[in-house]
Amino acid sequence: MEPRMNLYTNELGAKISKRFYNVSLAIEQSTLPRATQNLVMLRVSQINGCGFCVDYHSKDAAAAGETAVRLNLVAAWRESTVFTEAERAALALAEEGTRLADAHHGVSDETWAQARKHYDEDQTVALVYLVAMINAANRLGVIVRTQGGSYEPGMFASMSS
């Protein structure tokens, strides 16, 4: 499949992308552990089939020190032993928050309670916004067919401010 357009080279697309990036930067700077953020972004991107975002978040996580074992197992996190209970709670919330059309109840009370058990108010706010933002980013990438494979860690750092 060929990309349909580059949202970053269009003047309006670049303007919106900069603001989108700044919201993501606020989440990144929260107290929600960065490793958890990376795992959530990777898992949601896998579910949504966004090649660019899988490329982006797997490479950023590896550059931040995430292990290959954990990166490879995030797609099967329920059947693995390498994630903490807190990470499992975040991944469950991320999956239920992503699969809204598949899960008629949205995020279950049980999943919400598990997340709240492990994350304080600010971290929970960051997690909820993170799930929403990565889902939006995935949809952008899938709609315009942004291809994975060319991302280099830090390449969007100049978009802030």
Automatic annotation (TrEMBL):
Superkingdom of this protein's organism: Bacteria
InterPro entries in UniProt: AhpD-like (IPR029032), AhpD_core (IPR004675), CMD-like (IPR003779)
Name of the protein this chain belongs to: Carboxymuconolactone decarboxylase family protein
Signal peptide: none
Domain Carboxymuconolactone decarboxylase-like: from-to ranges: 25-96
PANTHER family found in the cross-reference section: 4-CARBOXYMUCONOLACTONE DECARBOXYLASE FAMILY PROTEIN (AFU_ORTHOLOGUE AFUA_6G11590) (PTHR34846), BLL7811 PROTEIN (PTHR34846:SF7)
Organism: Nonomuraea helvata
Pfam families named in the record: CMD (PF02627)
